[in-house]
Amino acid sequence: MSYIESKVGLMSTETMITARGLRKTFPAKGGPVEAVRGVDLDVEAGELVAFLGPNGAGKSTTLRMLTTLLPPSAGEAEVAGHSIAREPGEVRRRIGYIGQRSSASNSQRVRDELRSQGAFYGLGRRETRDRIDELLESLELVAVATRQVQSLSGGQRRRLDIALGLIHAPALLFLDEPSTGLDPHSRANLWQHILELRDRTGTTIFLTTHYLDEADQLAERVMVMDHGEIIADGTATALKRGLAGDTVTLGFETGEDARAAAVQIGGEASGQAVTFASDAGEHAVPQLLRQLDSAGLRAESAEYRRPTLDDVFLSLTGRSLREEGAAHGTIPDAAERPAVPTA
Amino acid sequence: MTDTISPSEKFIAPKPTSFVTDVASVVARELRPTLRDPFSLIFSLVQPLFFLGLFGPLLVATTDAPVEATLQWFVPGILVMVALFGTGSTGSNLLDDIMVGSHERTLVAPLSRSALLIGRALKEVVPLMAQGLIVVLVAVPFGFTISIPGLIVGLIILALFGIGFGALSYSLALAVEGREWMFWLVHQTVLFPLLILSGMLLPIDDGPGWMKVAAAINPIGYVLEAERALFAGDLASPAVLGGLVAASVITIVGLVIGTRGMRRAR
Ligand SMILES: Nc1ncnc2c1ncn2[C@@H]1O[C@H](COP(=O)(O)OP(=O)(O)OP(=O)(O)O)[C@@H](O)[C@H]1O
Ligand SMILES: [Mg+2]
C-alpha cells in the first residue's frame, strides 16, 4: 500500500495473503505425490474465504504451507505481511490455525490446555483467564473445563480446538474443516462465534470445508480446489451464475404441447416437459407462463431450480461433490450479517 | 479507525515472548498432567520397585555380603533404572501428541522450536526427583544409609542424565514419523542392553571380556558408579567426576539431537 493510499484510508486494500506458484510434492512409495501444483492466491484483510474441494484435493497441504508448517517445494507466499519462508516466526505470531486433526493433548485438562495456549502466545495471566472464560462460555465448554481431553466427545473436542485457535484473537484465522463432527446446534454456535469475532475485529478467515451449504451461505468468496489446483474463484453467486444459471422446468399434458411450448419460448423439450435456462428463475416463471397463455398453451406445472456449488463443481470437473457429506444445520444467513469493518 | 496506521501495525500481533518464557511455558504445560494426577508417578516406579523387592533379596542370598552392603550397592542401580525407564519412555507422550495433532498446534504457535524440546526435557527433572526420593526412602528402613551431600550431588547427576535421556527419547519420537511400534521396538532394544551393561543388576567385572569392553563405553555405567560413590559418602571419588561428565555428555548430545529433530518437525 502506498503512502497516499494509506493517507486516504483505503481500508480494504490491505493484503493478508499473497501466494505465487505454491507447490508441494511429497515423496511417496508409488512415485511422488503432487499435492499442490502451482497455487496463486490473494486474500484481502477482512475477507471470508472458503476453500472447497474433494478429499485429497490439496486443501490441507495449502493451509499447512501458508501457516509455516510445511516448506513449499516451490513458490512463495506472504501471510499477514511476512514471508512464510524468511519470517515464519512473525507469521506465526499473527495467525491462528485450527488444524484438521485435534489441537488438544489427550493427557491435558481442557482449561489447562487453554492456559498453556495463552502463555504460548504471550498473553498475560489475567488476559488469558478472561479469554478462557469467554471462550468456554461461548463454545459451551464450561461444563467440561476441568475434564481431561481424552474423555471429551468428538464435538466437544472440536469446540476445544476452536477455542485454542481463537485464544489470541488473531488477525488472520485458518480453519481446516472446523465444523466436521459437530451437530447442527454446535455448528450454528461455532459460526455465530466466528462471525461475531469477525464483525468485532475484522478478522480475516480462510477455511476449508466439505459442506457445500456452508461455503455457499457463509463465505463471500469460494475457491474451488481439485487435484492440487484452484479451478474456480469468486463469490458463490458469481460462480453459479457464470456456470449454469437457474433451470426452469415446465410440465405439459402431452408431448405435443411440450414441443410446441419449446418452440414458443426457446426451451428444450423432453417428453412432456420443457426446460429453460434463465438468470433469474423467479422472474422467468411468471413471464413464461404469460407468454405461453397468450399462445394458447397451458402449462400443468412449473418449477425452477437454483444451481448449487455442487453443480459448479460438476460442470468444472465432471464429478460431484455431493457424496462427500451432506450438510444440515442452521447457519446465520450471510445477507443478515452487518457489514464487516476491515481495519 | 485512523488513517495513519502503518500496514505492519494493522496486523496486531501479541508481543514476542523470550526464549526463557517459552521454555517455562512448555515446562508448565508438561508438568500439569503430573501435578493433577501425582499417582501417575508410581507407574514408572512399579518395575524398579519390583527389582528392589524381588531381585534384592536374591542378591543378598547369593552373595555373602550383609544386607546393608548389598543395598548400598544395589539401590543406586535402582535409581538409575528409574531414570532409564521413566525418561526413556517419555517420548511416547510426544508421539501421542504428534499423532493426535496437538503437536502441530504447538508448532504453529510462536514458540521457538528448541523451547518446545528443551521445555519437555527439563520437565523430566520433577517426576524423576520425586521418584528418586521415594526409592531412597523406601530403602532406608532396610538399612540403606544416605549421606545428605552425596544425595544432593547424586540427584543432580541423575537429573542431568534424565534431561539428556528424556531428550533422546523425544528425538526418537520425532524420528519414527508416527510409527508407534518402531518407537517401542527401539526403546526395548536399547534399554535392556544399556541396563545390563551398566552393571546395575550384577557386576560386569565377572563377565566375559567383550562385555567389559561394551560396558566401558556405556555412559550409564559411569553415572551408576558415581551414584554408588556418592551414596557411600565418597564425594571425592574420581567416579563422581566420571558420572558428571557422562551425564553432561548425554544431556548435550540429547538436547542437540532433539532440537535438530524438533526444527525439522512437520
Ligand atoms: N505427508 C504426506 N506424505 C505424502 N503424501 C501426502 C502427505 N500429506 C498429504 N499427502 C497427499 O497429498 C494430497 C493432498 O492432501 P491434502 O491433505 O492436502 O488434501 P485435502 O484437500 O485436505 O483432503 P481432505 O478433504 O481429505 O482433508 C493427497 O493425495 C495426500 O495423500
Ligand atoms: Mg484436509
Tell me about this structure:
The complex is a heterodimer of chains A (343) and B (266). Chain A contains twelve helices and 14 strands. In chain A, strands 6-7-8-3-9-10 form a six-stranded mixed sheet, sandwiched between helices. In chain A, a hairpin with a 6-residue loop joins strand 1 (15-26) and strand 2 (33-44). In chain A, helix 4 (110-120) crosses helix 5 and helix 9 (236-243) crosses helix 12 (309-317). Chain A has 343 residues and is of the alpha/beta class. Chain A folds into two domains: 3-241, P-loop containing nucleotide triphosphate hydrolases (Rossmann fold), CATH 3.40.50.300; 245-305, 2-Layer Sandwich (Alpha-Beta Plaits). Chain B is mainly alpha-helical. Chain B has one domain (20-27, 41-264). Chain B has helices at 7-10, 19-36, 40-43, 46-62, 67-88, 91-100, 102-108, 113-123, 125-139, 148-175, 180-197, 209-216, 219-231, 238-264. In chain B, helix 6 (91-100) packs parallel to helix 10 and helix 10 packs antiparallel against helix 13. Chain B starts with 6 loop residues before the first helix and ends with a helix. Mean pLDDT of chain B is 88; it is low at 1-10. The complex binds adenosine-5'-triphosphate and magnesium ion. Adenosine-5'-triphosphate (ATP) binds at residues 26, 28, 33, 35, 53, 55-61, 100 of chain A.
